[in-house]
């Protein structure tokens, strides 16, 4: 898929990787605009195509008292405001077929969570909106098996589909990235590496997912070196107090240095 089909996406001729980045969940308007402004400042400087990310609700929580959102339409309107304020496309994840039509009225890309990527009704509903569909590879799935999820989108009349690797379960409380899967999935379409979710440590006894943010640059560098088309990462100005996935998010203050290093690697790869 040519990412230039995504509305308002910039820097498509820079020969850089593209980026899906933002907070895990939309916690409020001020925080979303603050994070978006910083990310956009950095990506414009480095000429990185950007899609701003934010979950309008969190359905996959370990505990019933975990934060799930500020209200569906309220959060979606904030994503829409980010798009209109800064002129950038947005992406959010959906969990039920009914979410597809609702979210499609506010965002440019619909994302299917990893644990739901085999849900045919959900994938087809997303595809039929005509929006770009980003399929997260299931933590339990091989890279090869993602071709079937891709085909569900295409067979529904929508060729605007991307695949995102977000790691594979390794035991009960750790994830690994099998970088052999990147060239495999690139045979099926545009391929992204979800850096921060690949560093999650799920199934903690506390019911709160852990993570290894100290390894973000290591995984991201490897992704660029193996030829991913895009990177996905979650970032926040105060990860310790974020309402979701703070344990594996990148601190916003570290974003520019990370992306600067990754752009340099990409330029080196492009000359080989």
From TrEMBL:
**GO biological process annotations for this chain's record?**
lipopolysaccharide biosynthetic process
Chain ranges of the DAHP synthetase I/KDSA domain = 8-267
Pathway(s) the chain acts in: Carbohydrate biosynthesis; 3-deoxy-D-manno-octulosonate biosynthesis; 3-deoxy-D-manno-octulosonate from D-ribulose 5-phosphate: step 2/3; Bacterial outer membrane biogenesis; lipopolysaccharide biosynthesis
Q: Does the keyword Ion transport apply?
A: no
Reading the lineage from the top rank, the first entry is: Bacteria
One Gene Ontology cellular component annotation held by this UniProt entry = cytoplasm
List the GO molecular function terms.
3-deoxy-8-phosphooctulonate synthase activity
Q: Report the source organism.
A: Aureibaculum algae
Q: Return the protein name.
A: 3-deoxy-8-phosphooctulonate synthase
